Amino acid sequence: MTKNDDTSPNEEHWLSAQTITHLKSNKALVYPESVLKAISTIITTVDDSYERDDNAIEYLSEIVVQTLQKRPVADKYMKINRKDLARKPLMMQLLILMQDIVIKRQLGQSVQQLVWLSIAMHTAALLIVHNRKTDTKDILMQFKQAQFSGSSRRTWIWRELPYLPQMTISVEYISTILNDLLEQKKSKKVKKDDSDEKAKLNQIGKITTAYQNAHTLRKPRPKRKKPPKHIKIKAINLADNTSRLPLDSTATSHNWNTTTLSNDAWGYTRDDIEHSAIAIDLAFLEANTESYEGLTTSFEERIDHYEAPYVSYGEYPNPLIKNSIPLQTIDLSLQQNYMSQRNLALNSNTRLLSLSGYQALFVTLNQDASTLPESETDKTCAGILLLSMITGLPVKSLLISGYIGHPRIFNVEGKRYYIEHSLGITKRSTSQTLAKKDYENHSDTIKIPLPSWLIDNLLDCELPVKEDFTAYLANLRTSLGFPNLSVNRIETSLHVILSRYTPDCHGHIADIICRTPAPHAPAMYYSSHTSEALIAHYKSALNLLNNTGDFDLSYITPWHKYTVGSGFALKLETVRIIIDKLKVWLNQSLNDEEHFNRTSIFVWFIFCILTGVRPNNGLGKMYDIDLDMSWLEINDKPVKRVKSDRLIPLCPTLVRHLIDYRDYLIDYQAKHQLKHDISKTIDSIRLGNDEALLKLLSTSVNNLKDIKRGDAYHMTKSIIDANPYWTRHFVRTQLEKHSVQLPLINTIIGHEKARQEVLGRFSSSSKADIKRAAPVFEQIAEQLELNLIEIKNYSKLSHIQRRHVEVDHANR
C-alpha cells in the first residue's frame, strides 16, 4: 500500500482493483506484473476523466501515452499477427495494439484511436465487475478488430467517430455518438449480399450495447469528502495507541495527567467513569525489559511487560478518613467495583445494557437509518450510530468530514465495503534456519465487512452538527426507556455482545475484532486464528443483535482463508524437529564442560516450552519450584516495580526432567569437588534455596552463572535462528489449540487483568483450575516426544556411543 498517495489505484479506484483481481484469478492466462499495472493505470485514468470538468481529453491522452512509452509489454510479446495475438487474453491484446501505436507510429491522428481504445478497456472493466462476459468480449473484440484489421469493414469506425478537439468524455455524449452511428447504419437499406454493411452494423451494434449495459448497471458512487488538510488519517494499527483523529483543530487529545474535561467529551455526566480523567502517575507502567547482545526486543515483548493501569491511593487524601470506619475500605471497594464491573462484567453493571436492550437499540437504529426520508437529519444520526455499533469505530471519528469512505480506513473489494486494521505485529527477521512454512500465522490483518447501503447513504448525506446528534440521542433515551444510554455504551456494544453473549466467543476474540489498543490486550499477539473463524464470530454477534431479522446480513461472505495472530508462533512439527536437533547437538558434546552447558541449555528450552514463562535471566529459582506437588511460582518480570507472581502447573515430563537435571548437577559436583564455588552453588540448589536451578559454567569453568536468553540464542543459533521468546508464543497458541479456557490461559501465561492474578486479591481462577491444565502440558510434551528423552551424565556416554551419534548426524 502506498503510504503517501491518497489516489493510489488499489485504494481509491475500486474499479481497477477489482478488474486486476479478476484478471489474476484466471490461472490459464498469466499477465506480467507490468501489464497489470499499465491496465490498472489506464482504467483509473479513464475513470478520473469522466469526472473532470475540463481538459479531460488532454489529461487522458497524456497519461496513456506516458504509460505506454514505458513499454509495459515486453518485446517478446510484441508480435502483432493473428496467431500470436490470439494466444493472449483480450485485454492484453488491446494493450499490445495501443503500445504499438505509441512505439512504432507517429502520434497525431492515432491519438484518437488511443483514447477510444482506452475507453473500451474501461468499459470492459465495468462489465467485468458485473460479470457480463458476452458484453466484455464484444467491446474488446470489436475495438481490437478495428485496430488490427486492414479491412474497411472494420476500420470504418475510426472515420466516423469524432476527432479529439470535438470530443467530450461523458457517458451521455459517448452514448449519443454511438447511438447515432447505430441508427445511421440501421437506416441504410442493406442488400442481402452486402456483407460489408452487415459487418459494420453488427460491429457498432455490439459496441453500443456493451457500452450502454456497462453504464446502466453502474450505480453512481458518492464522491468521497476530502478531510480537512490539518487532519492526518492513517490506517488503523493497534501497535500505535496514540490518537490521530482530533474532532477539530481546537479539540484536545486525551491527557491522563489532567482533571479538566476535553471539549470533545460526549454527553458528560457527573461521576461517569467512562468520561472522567483521573490524575495518576503512569511512570510505573513503562515496559522494562532485559536486553541481550544480538537480540532485538520486539513490540510484542514490550507489550507483554506492560501492566494495565489501575487506580489506588498510596495515602488517603484526607487524614480524617482514617477515623471514619466506613471509608477506611475505600481502596478495596473502589477496586472491587471497577474490577467486577469492567473486567468480570457482572449483570449488576449499570454501565452495560441487557441483551434485550442492545437488541432493541440495534433494531431502532437500523429502522431509522434504512427507512427515514433522505432529508431527515435523524436518518444520518441513526446511520452513524449504527455504523459505530457494528464496528466499534468512535462516533467522534465518524463525524470528521471525509472520514467515512476514506480509503485509509474504508476499502472496497468488488461490491463489498470493509474496514481493515492491523495488529501491528513485528515483522519476523530473516532466519537462517526457519522458513515461512514453519510459522503458524502469515498475516496480522483483520477485515470487517460493512453493509454497502449504509456507507453509500452516509456518503450522500451531510454530517449532522453536534446539537442534532444530541437531540436524536435524547429522543432515543426516551423512546427506548434507557435513561443511561450514551455514545460510549453504543460504541462498546459490539465488544460486549462478542465477549458476553456470542456462543463460543470470548473477550480475546472481541479484543481482536474491536481493535482494543495493544497495552490493554497483550494476549492478542500470542494466538492463532483463521480469518473465517473471526468472521463467523462477527456474523454470530450481528445475528444475535438482529433478532427481528430486518437487517440483511447477506453482505457478510467468506474472505480468503488465512491465519491471523502471533508472528513468532512456530508450528508443532517445527518445534519437534528443533527438539530432535538439540538432542543430537547435546549428544555430540566433545568434553564434560561442553556437555554440561549443552545439557543446561537443552533443559532450559524444555522448561520454557512446558511452562510458557517469559524466557528471562535466572528462570526457575529452587525456592519457587515444588517438585513434590508439581508447582511453579514465578515472577518472570524481574525488572518490574510492580510484582506479578503467578502459579504454573508442572507436568510429569517436566518434573522428571528437572529432577534428572538436579541429579546431573549433584553428579557433576561429586566429580569436581575441588571447584568450591561450583560446589557451593549446587549445595544451595540442592537445599532449595533462592537460587536458579538452570546454570551455565562461567568462562573460567570455576563458577556457575544464571542462563540468559542471549546465551541460549547464541549457543543454538545454528539450530534455531530465532529469539527464544518464540517459546512463549508457541505455548500460548498450543494451549488455545487444546481448547483450554481463556481465563485459565491468561492465568498461566500471565495475561490477566491488573490485580486479578491468581495470587492477588481479585483472582479469577483457583489453584485447582490451574492444576487441571497440567495434563494439557503433558499432551504437548508427548506430541514433541519430550517424554521419551532422558538426561544422561557425560560419563554414561561411551566413546563408541558418541562416535555413533556423530556418524548418524553426518549421514543426515
Automatic annotation (TrEMBL):
The organism's place on the tree of life at top rank: Bacteria
Gene3D superfamilies, sorted: Intergrase catalytic core
InterPro entries in alphabetical order: DNA_brk_join_enz, Integrase-like_cat_sf
Keywords: DNA recombination
Annotated organism of origin: Psychrobacter alimentarius
Protein name: Tyr recombinase domain-containing protein
